[in-house]
Specification:
Length: 315
């Protein structure tokens, strides 16, 4: 009985037997665990986890698109209907009834080139804000990088953005637009600013919404004003002429203002008649806007990575 109980000792304690390295004559014994080191399934966190789990991101993207258009006759065709309706409302109310089409030459191109970016930003931020909270069953039951949810929201918005961009290019070509290298490069930088800014704020708001559900309502209300805080339905010169200088400087700090102006420079600028001059120091403001977008991106990622460990407990 004594021998049997000694043999069963390691198993009964739940510990792996030690492994002796070297001979006893050296007077030294090194003990190592027989089992490999246990690792947390949560990984290191951060958006790099999204890159490592690209297949999960694809699954979430497909699930989100199917859920949005389940039972829909048009399906992704709504990606064309939404921008068309938004454009029609702004064009007739601001352009025709308020006479902005007489102030800005080729006003439809001016309007739509700003509208596609603003729509991408608002849709991304609103979807990303509620993405974690609305996937609470997955967060509570399974481990997967939580950053996948805001990232999937961004990809869904980009899927909707591409048809609107195609309409913008076709419309600009019909007005006689010819692309230039600097214009296309500027539009690409403007798109990058919006993507970084929207994803950074989306990560920040998604984490805050888990703890304070009112954040979702606040974001929805703020998004109602975005279209009027950027030069989308009016030229930047209106702000210069009617606002105090200090307010103009604060207004220009908004990364979305620079992003919209870059899209105007790329798609509407070649059609302009010169009555509305380009904003001064656009290159310097572009660098500033890109730096601001990067700052919000890194802040949002850091805050999200820090708070995501408590998501399951709070839901």
């Amino acid at each position: 009985m004594t021998t049997a109980s000694q043999n069963a000792g390691p198993a009964s304690t739940g510990r792996a037997p030690a492994v002796q390295l070297g001979s006893p004559r050296h007077g030294r014994t090194v003990r190592t665990a027989a089992d490999p080191e246990l690792r947390s399934p949560a990984g290191r966190g951060g958006l790099m986890e999204v890159v490592h789990h690209r297949y999960l991101l694809k699954l979430l993207l497909r699930r989100e698109l199917k859920a949005r258009y389940k039972g829909s006759l048009l399906g992704l065709g709504w990606s064309y209907v939404r921008p068309a309706v938004n454009f029609a409302v702004f064009y007739f109310v601001v352009g025709v009834f308020m006479g902005m089409d007489k102030v800005i030459k080729d006003f439809p191109i001016y309007l739509f080139s700003g509208l596609v970016l603003v729509t991408l930003f608002t849709e991304t931020l609103q979807s990303a804000t509620r993405s974690v909270l609305h996937n609470a069953p997955l967060v509570r039951k399974v481990y997967l990088p939580r950053e996948l949810f805001p990232s999937a929201s961004l990809l869904v918005s980009l899927v909707h953005f591409l048809p609107a961009l195609a309409i913008l290019v076709a419309g600009a070509l019909s007005y006689g637009w010819r692309p230039t290298l600097t214009g296309v490069a500027g539009a690409a930088v403007g798109l990058l600013i919006v993507v970084l800014f929207a994803l950074g704020l989306g990560l920040l708001c998604a984490a805050a919404t888990v703890f304070f559900h009112d954040v979702e309502q606040v974001v929805d209300i703020v998004m109602l004003t975005i279209s009027w805080t950027v030069p989308m339905v009016y030229p930047w010169t209106h702000v210069r002429d009617h606002a105090p200088r200090w307010l103009l400087q604060i207004w220009q700090l908004n990364p979305l203002v620079s992003a919209v102006e870059l899209f105007h420079h790329g798609f509407w600028g070649p059609l302009s008649d010169g009555r509305i001059p380009p904003p001064p120091a656009l290159t310097a403001r572009t660098v500033s806007a890109l730096g601001c977008a990067l700052m919000f991106f890194f802040i949002g990622e850091a805050v999200f990575a820090r708070l995501q460990r408590r998501f399951a407990q709070e839901m």
